[in-house]
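Support request, please re-run this one:
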Amino acid sequence: MLTIIALACAMATLALHITALLLSPDLSAQDPISLLSHGPGAALQTTGLVLFGLAQLLVAIALSQPGHGRFWLFGRVCLAAAGLSNFYVAFYFGMTPLDTLRGPNANDPLWLTASLVGFAMGFLQLGFKRMSSELTAFNTWCLSLWILLIPATLLVDVLSLGVYERITGALYLAWVCGLAFLWRRTTRSEELMQG
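Re-run finished. Output below.
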């Protein structure tokens, strides 16, 4: 049940972000996502960030299954911390002056979230190997792309910060949704085989 709620929260996040962008005619997909927190769709953007944080907390709770080792616990803690960092990001974007959000330090708290997500992916990988080849393959794919995004920061001046953030955000969203979906499917299959 937690994974279904997590999926709903994550999908609502996507819908709210797109709606906030459409409500802000002065902004484009090339502008930093933080600017949406000051436009006509500010409440939608903030709500979306909070819901996405909630989705990650729910997935971290859903992953509470013993027998996967300490790295599994570290991965769950990093995932939960990334979710909590989304609450801070929502607050930061809403309270930071526009001049700062348009400058080079526009999205300072996002580096913490990105780091936590990368650690969560890496730590959870070890546990997935013990459970499901499908989860292992999916997480490996996401982790590989996440790592490739690190040197891609050098292209931010070419692409624009907003485009980079949305590429990163799409992968982040896909990972959380895929994790919730595949975890639910894997655990239900195990329950059916045992029951």
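The chain has a mean pLDDT of 88. The longest helix spans residues 161-194.
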